[in-house]
Amino acid sequence: MLVCLVMLVLQVGGWVVLNQIYGAKYASFRHMKLEGLRLQRLSVPFVHMIHASRAAQRLPLLMFKLQRSVQKLYGMRNSGEKTMLFLAEMVGYGYMMAAGGALISLMMGGDATGLVLGLGLGILVPIALVKDLHGKVQKRDQQILMELPELLSKIMLLVGAGETVQRALLHCVERKGADTVHPLYRELRQTVGEWESGYSFQQAFEHLSKRCGIQEMTVFTTTVLLNMRRGGSDFVMALRELSQTLWNKRTSISRTRGEQASSKLVFPMALILLTVIVLVGAPALMMMNM
């Protein structure tokens, strides 16, 4: 019981002290916009813990993967600080789970079960946050891959009708509207904004490829940049070949999604079958016992 009390006091007191000392230094992390975070207001002590432990130098592979995922979801700007904020969220949940376990152990009269449970959740919850982040990235990449063949088909029609590539892209973005939340058109709107603000078309397209971070988008941007100078039938032919490849990729993704949906239905169907067996078999067993 004494161990649990000391642990709880150290955790709560340590957070309060660190928040008072480093609150001004890391105040910007409290106001940074990052969707899905729940502990951002409490993040200052955890950010200091990460800096003090030199986690970025000790775990470079983890930091690289997290930062790449954060860049895809939240953009390239301030990606280092956003990654640090996400890490602080992970540490914060682990910290709270451990403190909650210590509190439960105190309420149970010093039983170590609550403490063990809290420490276990303190490890599992941050891992679940990382898996959720990577799941969101995978969903975003699939959304881009599913929409890219349709975009390419529209571009081919417009270019075949006499439009330039820039005008064709601008027309596709305008047709979707500024309110769309689709990741592909969100990135395209940023690309249009870049070349309208002074970047060359080539630079804007290269930035588009880096932001999307998927191989198919890299192939798309490379094909457009290499063949747009030729124009005419050569350009349309190159886009048509790429379109066929992307449509095949979309079919593969649709098939995979269907298989995943079918596998998710196995447990509910098994539960329903068990319920039906119980409902049908229980009256028969009761009659046999009578």
Which secondary structure elements does this structure contain, and how are they paired or packed?
Blueprint: H1 2-22, H2 28-31, H3 44-53, H4 55-58, H5 60-74, H6 79-107, H7 112-160, H8 165-176, H9 183-196, H10 201-212, H11 215-227, H12 232-264, H13 266-289
Helix pairs in contact: 1-3, 1-6, 3-6, 5-6, 5-7, 6-7, 7-8, 7-12, 8-9, 9-10, 10-11, 11-12
Report what the structure shows.
- Its main location: membrane.
- Residues 155-282 form the Type II secretion system protein GspF domain.
- It comes from Paenibacillus terrae.
- It is found in: Cell membrane.
- It holds the Pfam family T2SSF.
- With 290 residues, the protein is mainly α.
- It has two domains: 1-22 and 38-110, no CATH class; 142-253, no CATH class.
- The chain is 83% helix and 0% strand.
- The chain has helices at residues 2-22, 28-31, 44-53, 55-58, 60-74, 79-107, 112-160, 165-176, 183-196, 201-212, 215-227, 232-264, 266-289.
- α5 (60-74) crosses α7 and α7 (112-160) crosses α8 (165-176).
- The protein is flat, with a radius of gyration of 27 Å.
- The mean pLDDT is 82.
